[in-house]
Amino acid sequence: MSDALHQRIDSVPRGIFYMLAATLMFAISSALAKWQVETNPVVEVLFLRSIAGLAVVAVIILPRTGWNVFRTERIFDHAGRSGTQAVAQALIIMAFGLMPLAGAVAINFSSPIFAALFSVIWLKEKIGTARGLALAAGFLGVLLVVNPGADSFTTGALYALGNAVLFGSVTAAVRGMTVTESADTLTVYQMIFLTIFFGAALPFFFTWPTAHDLWVMLANGVINALGQYWWTRSLSMAPPAAVGPFYYFHLIWVIIIGYIFWGDVPTLLLFAGAAIVVGSGIFLLWHESARKARELEEAMKAE
User: Residue 124's CB: how many other CB atoms inside 10 A?
Assistant: First the structure.
């Protein structure tokens, strides 16, 4: 067995550790956002979070890449996908303020399903039988979580579903952009444009935060940025099929946090729907990884 393969295998546990750490950071960030939007405008919470996140990203990325990270010929594509992401982030934060964290996060887990759907539409990828069944099962899981026709079908659930749809479209767009753009360039421009967009909207929603709220919102940005960085590190250290399933620990953390701080008790429908959504997402992850492996093997044989 080659040294490179040994290193790849040894890096999987570390990749899993980074993924678990990232999901914990995301859960804490979600809880802080839910707490802060109770007394502060959503745009203000997001602007301060993006400012702090931009500072963290700059400290982590710029020393390694220098100004080369800003080189791109797709500036309008960066702006477009960041604009969509800004709306998606606003929707999920509003959802946090209107419904239990676990429900909003469970609905958000359907974003890979929408990403696969948009990949079929925009990137002209074939849907296939396996993909089609996974998409159908995922939508069924979302319906169980949202529970249409019942009192739980709230505005918050609609916001969370809107976030999942938009984030799925962003994921598909990023997949298309990775052909020419590095992960560092995508991350830097994402944080820059998010800060610009939320900053432009801030004068229409601004209220003076207390000193305590200000520091909490800035800390939220640091925590969220660390989560993003550790998530990226995880995927760079191990195959997505190995670490991707551990992303769903995010739901476990928010169930615990929601119960401790807000007394939220998940329903059986939420557990059932979340299990179906998570299962569909893991299957799609495995299916896409296997497909890419086959394509790589065929390309190597052709050479």
Answer: 7
d(CA 73, CA 61): 20
Taking only the tens of pLDDT, the chain with its 303 residues reads: 444 444 454 577 888 888 889 889 999 999 999 999 989 999 999 999 999 999 998 998 899 889 999 988 889 988 988 898 899 999 999 999 888 888 888 888 777 777 777 777 766 666 677 777 777 787 777 777 766 554 445 788 889 888 888 877 777 677 677 778 887 888 889 899 999 999 999 999 888 889 999 999 999 999 988 888 888 778 777 766 677 778 888 888 998 999 999 998 888 888 888 888 778 777 777 766 666 666 656 655 655
Sequence-ordered list of residues with C-beta below 8 angstroms from that of 179, at least 6 positions apart, any chain: none
Q: Which residues contact 204 (CB under 8 A, 6 or more apart)?
A: 43
**What is the C-alpha separation between 45 and 221, in angstroms, rounded?**
9
Cα Rg of the chain (Å, integer): 19
- How far is it, in rounded angstroms, from Cα 251 to Cα 122? 30
Task: Encode 185-219: b = buried (16+ Cβ within 10 Å), e = exposed.
Answer: bbbbbbbbbbbbbbeebeeeeeeebeeebeebbbb
- Residue 161 makes CB contacts below 8 A (sequence gap 6+) with 107, 110, 142, 146
Measured between alpha carbons, how far is residue 118 from residues 46, 67, 73, 80, 173 in Å? 26, 33, 23, 16, 9
Closest CA to 108 of 221, 185, 26: 26
Domain boundaries, the chain: 21-302
Residues 6+ apart with CB under 8 A from 201: 43, 47
Residues 147 and 128: their CA atoms lie apart, in Å, by: 28
Total residue length of the chain: 303
SS3 128: coil
User: Distance (Å, rounded) from C-alpha 115 to C-alpha 134?
Assistant: 12
